[in-house]
Amino acid sequence: MIEHTPREEVLSIIRHLEDDPSATQRALSNRLNISLGKTNYLLKELVKKGFVKAQSFSHNSGKLQKVNYLLTKEGFEERLRLTGYFLKAKEEDYNRMKKEWEQLTNSPTQYSSSEVEKF
Hints:
Layout: H1 8-19, H2 25-32, H3 36-48, E1 52-56, E2 67-71, H4 73-106, H5 113-117
Antiparallel strand pairs: 1-2
């Protein structure tokens, strides 16, 4: 992984590349609402880690090279790992919030019941 704590942008890039390997960095940047520089950095790191393979398919030397970003077997495994990581994190958040809500609604507090219903 790129950092010690996984970032949702990495999972989002992997998902988008799986759906559209010919997506440009600019298109990814716009879809994910992150800067083009950050998109470039993350893609380079994914290539370096072996999760994505960059394949040039433009042979015209007078034009910019077009690149396909192909998800590797390791990239697919990373997608599964990250999906599991974020699902677990969301489940923990949900359980924590549910417990807080139950404590708010089941214990006598300084709030009236009409104030609690506003939440």
